[in-house]
Predict the 3D structure of the following.
Amino acid sequence: MQVSGFKCQVGSGVLVSDLLDFCIGKGLSGLEWAGGLPGTVGGAIRGNAGAFGGEMKNVIESVVSLDISQTNSKIIKRSGLESLFDYRSSIFKRTPGKEIIFEATLKLEKGNQNKIEEEMNKNINYRLVNHPLEYPSLGSTFKNVPRESIKTNIENMPIKKDPFEVVPAAYFIAEAGLRGVSSGGAMISPKHPNFIVNVLEATSEDVKNLIKLVKNEIKKKFGVELEEEIEYLKSYPQPRY
């Protein structure tokens, strides 16, 4: 990681947690919302990760990637605007298998080290208390639902900024009575129902069964189509020698 002024150049394979520690050490503000965010910087960029009202797109100045879709691969540098960030998405996520993110330049601000660390720790502690981190899981399984897309009466539904107004997917799942429902070794977390946790050697089929159940029940009860935030990986046959 390199800093020039308030700009930070970071490789895609760097863990978000390591980037945040670096920001604290340099007194760089703008990523406090990412406290406790798992995974790598490249993954956070690809999915335009967000929490507590912040998103990656807010700090991205540019992204460098390798286009591997052609015989002759080439390096591409895009601005944040050209990366076409959307809610939990980007140009990289919408074109799977085409590009590999190499690095990014983040535009941050000068801040107070103690205040930056305090805000990050507050968000980390929130996750520890409210998320089922004691079990392996998919993380947030479904995207939150934009308020404007809900056709039914939302008067009593909780609204939060994410960063625009949304109704949490967890609300719909809880209201449908699906907390603690299991399939094989997978379970909809009673602690946070947007998490599907592995409690007993769950298989991918166990997880997919719960995802299908949740989507069907929410559609039937609320007329809302939940969309997965996770992605499905294709399986390929093993080579034969």
